[in-house]
Amino acid sequence: MLRLSYHKTFIEAGVDEAGRGCLAGPVTAAAVILPPKRLKWFKLLNDSKQLTREVREELRPLIQRDAIAWKVAFADHEEIDRINILNATYLAMHRAIEQLPLSPQHLIIDGNRFKPFGEIPHCCIVEGDGKYLSIAAASILAKTHRDEFMQQLHTQFPDYGWDHNKAYATAMHRDAIQRHGITPYHRKSFSLCDPQVELEFEAPLQGF
Description:
The protein has helices at 53-66, 77-83, 85-98, 133-156, 162-165, 171-180, 197-200; strands at residues 12-18, 27-33, 69-75, 106-110, 122-125. By secondary structure, it is α/β, with parallel strands linked by helices. The chain has a 5-stranded mixed β-sheet, with helices on both faces. Strand 1 and strand 2 form a beta hairpin. The protein is globular and about 55 Å long. The relative contact order is 0.23.
């Protein structure tokens, strides 16, 4: 069972991202403050990658309804190209934290590195989305909101399979780039046709 909090006495937000290893579209981050007592549906929470799409979609409205506070934010493809994917990931995380209607007193971040947000103390937790409920909730919101955005883009650019690959570096996506070229939403700073890109950008966050 995932833990409810890292610091029981603080207002704590869990933070996670989605889309860091994609070839197109934004990187998306979410920050979530959950209530201090367990709700029945908390038992379903887990790392979004371990859940089916149906379970993620079931949990999203429950998180948004019952969380004390939550926010989703983006750093778009142009920002990724301008400041690099790592900095853009931190930027999206900072935006989500900044827009929370309740200011957290402590942050728990999925991953091994983070750029501090103001004076709020934080703790980085490797595979935290499988250990803490608020990070798992953030991972689900980040994933479902980004998937929804890529689904909308798919209607404009159907050749790339974004309705199912969500712009990750699948063989089908790279082949579509070779056949059709890139869209305005592709990340030009990435090696778009390199089959190693999927492995490279799924590594843990490193340095800032």
